[in-house]
Amino acid sequence: MIFSKTLTHWYSNNKRNLPWRETNNPYYIWLSEIILQQTQVKQGLPYYQAFVSKYPTVYDLAKANESDVLKLWQGLGYYSRARNLHATAKYVTNELNGKFPNTYKDLLKLKGIGDYTASAIASICFNEATAVVDGNVYRVLSRYFGIDIPINSSKGGKAFKELAQSLIDKNAPAEFNQAIMEFGATQCKPKNPYCNICPFKDSCIALNKNRIHELPVKIKSAKAKKKHFNFLVFISEDEKTILHKREGKGIWQNLYQFPLIETEKSMTIELFKSELKNNDLLSDATFDLSLYNKDAIVHKLSHQHLYTKFWIINIKAIPMGSVPISKIREFAVPVLIENFIESFNF
């Protein structure tokens, strides 16, 4: 109980003024929590404001086209969050009459909502005493209690959830959950935490045993795969290009991209010209080929690193299915493609 009181006292004096802290509307809390997964507040805040402005209610979000939702999400990454966000909005609207479930157990049944998000919504909106456990919480608890169980193991997940649940103030669960998340985000930071002004400095095991930089412990993930992506950027005389919509499962599902050729190694212009001979888009066409970026652009994802080159293909006419270059910014694209579009300055 002393831990909880100290934590919430710190929070009352140090919390940031954020829009989702001014409401207990489950739609806004859910929206903020989905956006802030894998995302820092300073990056996520403009997206939250944009979504609230364009889709002020869950009904508005449910009526939107998925392509518009993905476009508004563009730049945040982990696009499955946006697809799940849209799917859940439609489910809540059509099946639940626009009302979110009011218990942790029922919130877990919604697409894209896991233990952390369900706990946040249940505690903040419905005063249910269920503890949140995210990266910030893992860090605070592992350091304060000196716990070296890997946080990304099943044993660790269970142990930290039980510990957080035992500490939560059952009379003020929303305040406790927000306090421990805020404490991890701004005070007990991953690097250079403010230990010298920490209210727990006398009782923190990691600090007193000089283990701050060792905790929390995380099992190293498998080495990311290296892939070579070659995007074909068509430019016709009548200022058109080609964009393909990615189908099937994958990180960029339903986003648009330039035609893609994946190769086993980095390609020189001579090798790539040979590669293009069998491409359906160019087999019977006359074109000029140039390489936009000599050095591959490395786009790092959690499980793979994409070594990317953009090949400019000037051609008299697009052989099939084209879009006006003037409309290219209207399409939802991965941030890798968005950055190229901005730097190329069509």
From TrEMBL:
<dbReference type="InterPro" id="IPR044298">
    <property type="entry name" value="MIG/MutY"/>
</dbReference>
<protein>
    <recommendedName>
        <fullName>Adenine DNA glycosylase</fullName>
        <ecNumber>3.2.2.31</ecNumber>
    </recommendedName>
</protein>
<dbReference type="Pfam" id="PF14815">
    <property type="entry name" value="NUDIX_4"/>
</dbReference>
<keyword id="KW-0234">DNA repair</keyword>
<keyword id="KW-0479">Metal-binding</keyword>
<comment type="similarity">
    <text>Belongs to the Nth/MutY family.</text>
</comment>
<dbReference type="InterPro" id="IPR029119">
    <property type="entry name" value="MutY_C"/>
</dbReference>
<dbReference type="InterPro" id="IPR005760">
    <property type="entry name" value="A/G_AdeGlyc_MutY"/>
</dbReference>
<keyword id="KW-0408">Iron</keyword>
<dbReference type="InterPro" id="IPR011257">
    <property type="entry name" value="DNA_glycosylase"/>
</dbReference>
<keyword id="KW-0004">4Fe-4S</keyword>
<dbReference type="Pfam" id="PF00633">
    <property type="entry name" value="HHH"/>
</dbReference>
<dbReference type="InterPro" id="IPR023170">
    <property type="entry name" value="HhH_base_excis_C"/>
</dbReference>
<dbReference type="InterPro" id="IPR015797">
    <property type="entry name" value="NUDIX_hydrolase-like_dom_sf"/>
</dbReference>
<dbReference type="Pfam" id="PF00730">
    <property type="entry name" value="HhH-GPD"/>
</dbReference>
<feature type="domain" description="HhH-GPD">
    <location>
        <begin position="35"/>
        <end position="186"/>
    </location>
</feature>
<keyword id="KW-0326">Glycosidase</keyword>
<dbReference type="InterPro" id="IPR003265">
    <property type="entry name" value="HhH-GPD_domain"/>
</dbReference>
<dbReference type="InterPro" id="IPR000445">
    <property type="entry name" value="HhH_motif"/>
</dbReference>
<keyword id="KW-0227">DNA damage</keyword>
<comment type="function">
    <text>Adenine glycosylase active on G-A mispairs. MutY also corrects error-prone DNA synthesis past GO lesions which are due to the oxidatively damaged form of guanine: 7,8-dihydro-8-oxoguanine (8-oxo-dGTP).</text>
</comment>
<keyword id="KW-0411">Iron-sulfur</keyword>
<keyword id="KW-0378">Hydrolase</keyword>
